[in-house]
DNA sequence: TTCACCGTCAATGTATACAATGGAGTTCCA
DNA sequence: TGGAACTCCATTGTATACATTGACGGTGAA
């Protein structure tokens, strides 16, 4: 693997998994030594991370981008813009076969009253396949690009909340509705079901946060 | 000015103004010599341009990103996602004073049946101030960031079409409606007026294109 | 004691030397 | 004659030396 890629992967992974906390300064030499490459690929990696919004360049020092409740709300407003449009376009252009099969899978998941811990990863994988199917249907490089960047930030956000089994089952039901709307080429319903899902999702995260950290610093 | 900034500015400017045509390969050494800096800042500039989507990295060669009619349509689908959401949030949070003053200005521009060549730059400047006011009202870093990137691509797209005086006057009327909706905090109307504006805008560009280039390569 | 100036230094910014890589052309074999 | 492999070369990838800059602390004078 090329050094630049390595530096990027390591730093990105550390940031997404909160091993590098928001605000942590990222000095070139220090990171270069830690990762085991020279400053040049580190600079390249930092440039990419800044462009993605995972690193902030304040003055001369780069540091891990902040992430607070405010960020979360803003992220979901942005997400609403992208995902409702994606749902609309997917409904317009979807391949029926793909979404029929996704519908069947979401039906199975939604039939349960809760999604067990052991099935959690499988459910996330299903959602990821749904996202990929939407991307392919939408077939719009600008939108897909933006969605990819958005999902990166959502990975970081996920660590803030806790998806319990009941929430996952409800999420499955919400995805089922969106999938059905896309399959039926009902653009309006696809948009609105997506908005509903995002609302529930944000409410759940915020509730979790209030539970976990009653007193934010 | 720092060399990296210089390289970025020069390349970006050349791409946006079509002095570097889509598909033009951007070899590091060649560009470094042309701009008068070393390869390092050129690499940094290219990285930023790739992140912005103005340069594509196909295999080992970077080249100016393609831009076709397809891209234009996709760009406007993306634009619809961002700008309708921006309009909604701006309507929710706007400072009345700011939009009252913008409304008055758009009223003046829309009152004319056509916006003269000499007033064109002034009108674009007005739209830019409108965009800035929306950004400030929306107050969402992710959305604002995405909008900034979008506008960059729109600058490049503008060179494809020709805004005639009648179109500009209609654009003023459309902006007036959006501004009024935001001022009235009518989120639904703000969204829909924005969608209407984008539709008209795209129709105009496409018509211009068919006129200019009846036979696309 | 306080403030302004200056020197030191640690960090980033830039250039360049060197390594690795991938592609084009050529040669040789089947 | 077709194609496979090899060689050469141009270009990118990486490391590092050197330049620049901005911050901090110390020293001096008011």
Could you give the order of strands across the largest sheet of chain A? 1-2
Low-confidence stretches of chain A: none
The DSSP helix count of chain A reads 9
What number of structural domains do the residues of chain A give? Answer: 2
C-alpha Rg of chain A, in Å? 19 Å
> What is the oligomer described by this structure?
homodimer
CATH class of the largest domain in chain A: Mainly Alpha
Largest sheet of chain A: 2 strands, antiparallel
Helix content of chain A: over 70%
CATH fold category name of the largest domain in chain A: Four Helix Bundle (Hemerythrin (Met), subunit A)
Give the overall pLDDT of chain A as a whole number: 94
Q: Strand portion of chain A, in percent?
A: under 5%
Chain pair forming the biggest interface = A-B, 28 and 28 residues
CATH architectural type of the largest domain in chain A: Up-down Bundle
Secondary-structure element string of chain A: HHHEEHHHHHH
- Separation of the first and last Cα atoms of chain A: 40 Å
Shape verdict of chain A: globular
CATH homologous superfamily caption of the largest domain in chain A: GntR ligand-binding domain-like
Q: Based on DSSP secondary structure assignment, what is the total number of beta strands of chain A?
A: 2
Summing up helix and strand content along with how strands pair, one would put the structural category of chain A as mainly alpha
